[in-house]
Write a structure and sequence with these properties.
Rossmann fold; 15% strand; binds NADPH dihydro-nicotinamide-adenine-dinucleotide phosphate; alpha/beta; seven-stranded parallel sheet
Length: 246
Amino acid sequence: RTPLAGKVALVTGGSRGLGAAIVERLVRDGAAVVFTYAGARDRADALVAELTAAGGRALALEADSGDVDAVRRAVARTREAFGRLDILVNNAAIARTAPLVDVADDDLERMLAVNVRGVVVATREAVRHMDRGGRVINIGSINSEYVPFPGASLYALTKGALSGFTHGLARELGARGITINNIQPGPVDTDMNPAGGPNGQYLTGLIAVQRFGHTREIAGLVAYLAGEEGAYVTGADLRIDGGFAA
Ligand code: NDP
């Protein structure tokens, strides 16, 4: 089954974690996928080699989401490589946590640049060229609405921004047959938030199903939204959090 055959996707931050699982799933579903990474060239190359060996079409680009020109180029190069762009997954983000009074100006600017401006620029550049059936899928966070611990106000702010952006832009894209949604995962086991890390046990206790999410579970929701059946979902914040915020 290749429900995304003929489609072209761009996934930001696809070398590890959730982004890598999304890349794998979209390729398996038949899409040609370009993904960006910030520094992990070896991992990115290894992922491309693995997917290509299995008959998929994938390409990795180094592109810092905090760099406007790099983001713009990544969108252009996706279209050059595979001829079109149907699906944009805004996944790349950083999480620098600290009490607000200890947040340095540099951290503030970097978080806004990567988590917010990078998403806006990628989306603007991508939707210029999207045809009917296009999809923008943001990876926000349940922390935009529920933050049961201190130190994450800035991270929550950046993820809340994606929610508002999604609602607003849905009204511009709807008539063109393009959807935009904001997936809000709860704790998912990745380098950013390892289930075995210092906060793992505490967080697990707050999750209704008593475990961290698997990256493939989030990738499954992305695949649903990207596919034809997802066409009637737009402007939505979609919780996928094991009942963390229930
Ligand atoms: P990881 O830190 O494990 O992976 C981040 C990925 O993004 C890597 O591929 C990394 O590339 C890339 N990346 C980081 N910074 C940049 C940048 N400036 N430009 C381009 N790419 C970049 O994160 P997760 O997989 O955990 O998170 C993915 C998304 O899911 C994020 O938006 C995060 O906020 C969100 N999320 C995560 C949750 C969790 O519990 N894990 C919960 C809710 C939301 P490289 O390998 O080169 O460093």
